[in-house]
Amino acid sequence: MADYPVKRLRRLRYNSLIRDMVRETELSKNDFIYPLFVVPGNKVKKEVKSMPGVYQMSIDTVVEECKEVRDLGIPAVILFGIPEHKDEKGSEAYDPQGIIQRAIRKIKKEVDNLLVITDVCMCEYTSHGHCGLLKGEEILNDETIELLAKESLTHVQAGADMVAPSDMMDGRVKAIREIFDDNGFQKIPIMSYAAKYSSGYYGPFRDAAESTPAFGDRRSHQMDIANVLEALREVETDIEEGADIIMVKPAGPYLDIIRRVKDKFGMPTSAYQVSGEYAMIKAAGLNGWIDEERVMIESLTSIKRAGADMFLTYFAKDAARWLDKNRR
Ligand SMILES: [Zn+2]
Fold first, then answer.
1. pTM (2 d.p.)
2. What's the average model confidence in pLDDT over 240-248?
3. Is 196 a catalytic residue?
């Protein structure tokens, strides 16, 4: 093969206009979903210590934050709630007057043109920090999905545009789809955390959501980090149960899973760039060990290149500003 010198791939890297023209993967603000942590109180804006630039906010502050997010051109937020009171059964999770339900109503009233997605799980609301009802130390599956369905219904009744169950109980997508359809919410989509791994990268999130389990871990419902085929079965099950968007979590260390899921199912696919991924880039950036902005964009581009159509990322605002500055 005597391609060279006829074939010179560097010709298409000659200047930035040409590089922009042939770029295969383009980030867009349309892909971004920004996670927010809602806490009780007034005028609260408390930085999460392991996540610089990420805050726990009271409802009034979250509303202002949502306006800023919308004005930056980011289409969606996902809400996590930290309740006033936690109990064994996580009652505030499905209380129509709970923290998230009140936050949704306020945001929908005051901020237009913004999708409000809600995380659906029990672990922020239970006194033991587990994702469902317990019997001894076992998390009960079927009893828990009833509560998750109830929780989801209160979210959409408050005005949520989409729900995202993150618990990894079996059958929860079906239970949520049924309760929505029975109550006139046929049009509300479900984004399921379909392949959620039992990952060490969630550490900083538990500071933010105050959801560290009091004992044990989440290995009886989240996936073993070593498994791929099981992820495909999880995703397939959620699609059959009625999921509209499927998610892989975490994102960066699981790019192979994103690609396999996208290739096999061709579904709208989201990925969660989780707290630990964010914290590592932030910390190294703050120390001057890496160029934070550059690595941020590289990490997000990698997730999109792997096949994700959208991502949940704590960098959403920074990345939106970067796009404003750097892309036509
Ligand atoms: Zn949970």
1. 0.96
2. 98
3. yes
